[in-house]
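so i finally got all the pieces together for this one. its two components total, 548 residues if u count the protein bits. some of the lines might not be protein, just check the labels. i wanna see the whole assembly predicted at once instead of chain by chain like last time, that was a mess tbh
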Amino acid sequence: MSSLLQVKKVSKHFGGFTALSEVSLDIAQGERFGLIGPNGSGKTTLINCISGTLRNETGSIVFEGREVSRLPAYQRTRLGIARSFQVPRPFASMSVLDNLLVPYEYVEHLKEADAGKQAMDILQRIGLAAKAHAQSNQLSQVELRKLELARAMAARPRLLISDEAMAGLSGAEVDEVLKILFDLNASGITVIMIEHIMQAVMRFSQRVVCLDAGKIICEGTPAEIVKNADVQRAYLGA
Amino acid sequence: MRFWICAAVLAAASFGLALSPVNEYFFYAAYVVLTFVVLATAWNILGGYAGYVNFGTPAFFGIGAYAATLLFKSLGAPLAVQIAAGALMGGLLGFGVGMLTLRLRGIFFAIATVAVVFIMETLMINWRYVGGATGLQLLRPEVIAPFENYIRMLFVVMAWMGIAGVAIARYVQDSWIGRGLRALRDSEEAAEACGVPTLKLKLFACTVMGGLMGAAGAPMPMYLSFIEPASTFNLNYTIGALGGAIIGGMSHWLGPIIGALLLGSLQQIVTVTISGEVNVLIVGVLLVLFVVLAPEGILGLLKKIMPRSR
C-alpha cells in the first residue's frame, strides 16, 4: 500500500513542556488508524500539527508526497485533510445546513444552490436531515458530533481525522458514529481515529499507535496493543 | 431587485430634498446623522459579521479627513478626488492595521485599535502643513450648479455614500464572504478546518471598513470649513459607530442603519433642545440598556415580536 501521510520526527513544546518529541508515523492510503494514549499524552497536539491548527517546531509532515507542515490550516483542508474537533465547534449562529455550506463554498468553490443540494445528501446519509434548518446551537450532544463529522465530510477529504467523536455518547450512539466512519472508509477515505473508548478503537482500527508523554510507546494490531505491557502501564500506572 | 429600487428612490429623494426649500439647519444636522450611518455600516462589516470589535473608528475617519485636507490645500483637488483619496488612505490604514493586529483576538485587537487613534492624532498634531494642533481654516470652493449652497450638496454626497456603503455591506453579508466571516466569528479554528482563509478574510473586512470610514471622513473638513486633530480624532466617532451597530443589531445590514439613524437623530435633537453634554450621557445610557436588555439590538427585538419575518 502506498503511504498517504508521513509524519517524520515531529516535535512540539509548550514553554518548558514537551508535548511531542520526535513522533513519526506512516499512514497508508485507505487505512483505518487508531491513536490512543492517556490524557495529556499529546494525541490532540499531534493532530493539531497534522491539520495545521498548530505548527510543529521540528520534523516534517508529508501528505501525498507534499511537505505541508508550513501551510496554514485552510490550505491543508483544501489539499484533503479534514478533521473534527474534540469539543464540538459548530458555527453556532448558523443553521445545520449553512454549517455545511462553508466547506462547500470554500473548499470546492460551489455555488450556494449546488452546495445546498449536496449538503442535504450528506445530512441524509448521516441522519441529520430532519434538523437541516435547526439552529446549530440547539442540537443534542450526539447531533453535534454528527455535525462535526458531516462538516468534515463536506470538505471532500482524503484523510479524515476524528478527534474523540464518540466521547460522552451512549452505546447505541457509539455504534451509530462507528458505522458512519466505517462507511466513509469504505468509500475510500483514510481515517485516523482518536478515541478513549477502547472497545470502539479496537473494533475500528486495523493498526493502533499508543502515545504516552509525547512519545510513541507501542504500535501494532489492536490485539497486540491490548496485550502490551507498556500500554497497560501507561493506562493503569506501574 | 427591491433593494436597488429602494436605493434609487432614496438617492433621488435626497437629491430632490436638497433642491427643495427645506430649512437650512436640517441639512447641517442630517449630514452628521448620515455620516454616522456610513460609519456604523462600515464598523459592522468587521465588528458585526466577523466579531472583531474596533475602537479605532476616529483613526480611519480622521485619515480620510486629513487626506482630503492635504489634497485640497496643496492641489485644490475637487471633492470627488478628496473622497477617493480618503477612501484609499482609509483602506490602506485598514490593511496595515489589520496586518499588524488581526492575529490578536478579542479584547487584544480592540485595545490595539485604540492605540491607532492616538498614534494618528499625535502625528497630525505635529504636522504643521495640515495645521498642527491649532488646526487649519479652509475656504470652500464655489458650489456646483443645481445646489444653492455647499452644505446641501454635502448632504446629497453623504446620502449617496450611505447608499453605496450599505450596498457594499449587503453584498458582503449575502455572499460567500459573509458566510466565511460569520464562520470565523463563531469559531476561528473550525473555520480554518473548513477551508476558510481566516486571516485573508479578516484583512479584507478591515480594509473595506477602513475605506468606507475614510470616505466618510473626507468631506468633513469642507463641511466645517476647518480641521483640527482633537475633534477629528474624537472618541465620539467610536461610540457613534459601534453604538449604532449595537443598538440597531449587528446580524444584518439593516441594523446599523436603524441604529445610527435613531441614535444620530436623537443626539441632534438633544443637542439643540437640551445640551451637547446631555447628548453624550444619553448615548451611554442607551448603550448600557441595549447591551443588557436587548443584546441583539432593535432587529433582535423585532424578530421576537414578529418571529416569521427575517
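Residues 52 and 73 of chain A are 4 Å apart (CA to CA).
The domain at 3-89+141-236 of chain A is CATH 3.40.50.300 (Rossmann fold).
anyway lmk what u think
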